From TrEMBL:
<feature type="transmembrane region" description="Helical">
    <location>
        <begin position="284"/>
        <end position="306"/>
    </location>
</feature>
<dbReference type="GO" id="GO:0005345">
    <property type="term" value="F:purine nucleobase transmembrane transporter activity"/>
</dbReference>
<feature type="transmembrane region" description="Helical">
    <location>
        <begin position="141"/>
        <end position="164"/>
    </location>
</feature>
<feature type="transmembrane region" description="Helical">
    <location>
        <begin position="77"/>
        <end position="99"/>
    </location>
</feature>
<dbReference type="GO" id="GO:0015211">
    <property type="term" value="F:purine nucleoside transmembrane transporter activity"/>
</dbReference>
<keyword id="KW-0812">Transmembrane</keyword>
<feature type="transmembrane region" description="Helical">
    <location>
        <begin position="203"/>
        <end position="222"/>
    </location>
</feature>
<feature type="transmembrane region" description="Helical">
    <location>
        <begin position="312"/>
        <end position="333"/>
    </location>
</feature>
<feature type="transmembrane region" description="Helical">
    <location>
        <begin position="170"/>
        <end position="191"/>
    </location>
</feature>
<dbReference type="InterPro" id="IPR030182">
    <property type="entry name" value="PUP_plant"/>
</dbReference>
<keyword id="KW-0472">Membrane</keyword>
<keyword id="KW-1133">Transmembrane helix</keyword>
<feature type="transmembrane region" description="Helical">
    <location>
        <begin position="242"/>
        <end position="263"/>
    </location>
</feature>
<comment type="similarity">
    <text>Belongs to the purine permeases (TC 2.A.7.14) family.</text>
</comment>
<keyword id="KW-0813">Transport</keyword>
<dbReference type="GO" id="GO:0016020">
    <property type="term" value="C:membrane"/>
</dbReference>
<feature type="transmembrane region" description="Helical">
    <location>
        <begin position="111"/>
        <end position="129"/>
    </location>
</feature>
Amino acid sequence: MENTTQEMELQIRVENKELNSQSRMPSTATTQQRLPPYKDYMWWFRVSLYIVSLLAGQSAATLLGRLYYDKGGNSKWMATFVQSAGFPVLLPILLYVQLSKSSTNNSPPKHPSISTFLLLFLFFGLLLAGDNLMYSYGLLYLPVSTYSLICATQLAFNALFSFVLNSQKFTAYIFNSLVLLTVSASLLAVHPDSDSTTKISKGKYIIGFLCTVGASATYSLFLSLLELTFKKVIKRETFDAVLLMQIYPSFVATCACVVGLFASGEWKTLPSEMKEYEKGRVSYVMTLFWTAVSWQISSVGLLGLISEVSSLFSNVISTISLPAIPILAVIFFHDKMDGVKVISLILAIWGFLSYVYQHYLDDVTAKSRTSMSNEDASGSFLGTS
């Protein structure tokens, strides 16, 4: 009788142990529900769509901005205004995202105080306005091909600011990228007479060069500070939070451009500028309109990449249009692509590929560490069970 009782107790213990181990292990149905098979494909589809939007919008906006100047436009503040004035296009997207989140989330996430948000919007908005103004000066005084090549220094500044603000490590590939991009820009700086078709004085060329370099540095600082703000202040990098940090600073930047337009007196020349525009008044308005829309399409792609991947990745992708814009400038604006520009282009692409390869290595290392941690966790789980 005692043996029978002991055997029954032993069997009960074994069954309880099996039930506890099964309860600790997620079921196949739960795992499949948590990680649907099409999730990776949808993620790649969204990222690809954002990349196309960023590259197409940025290339179109740059070419249209140059077209505005070539056909008779001369207002720097108007060219700056259209870079941020298209932000209302993003309002329906923000409304849709917030409504969809409110229908699924019962407890809304905590937000910083209103005063904190106002300070952030004001700071980033004024920084964006200054950055856009420098880009406008650069695009006015430089050929599109030269302008786009100098913009490649954005990657070098991005690596520097990411090292200081976002704790990114300097490696041999990053350093190689910095050297190549610096040499690429320096070639264009010391050889301003390489394009004889621009009819721009040496002094204006230097101003355009310095403004473009300054704009590239400011934009890299903008993205690095934005990433730091998401981590330290907002503490979330959801798509609606990224949209907020695009829409409201763009509104502040647009207001600053309106003030600059009236303070500089350029608003007085706009009627005559529209009247004397080579393609006519309708073409004048449509050029400015589609420039604004193109910049917002680019912003949607940029914001989507920040939300899905990181601001660093979005900055890298935005420079992929580097080889495309000079070629398009040669086709549409007949820019001269001489030997210096070709060498500068090759060095810039080399620096870009070196930069991208380093991030590929970082991604491989991160994935291997994740797989090793998962194996360790599964091993410890089997040991305890």
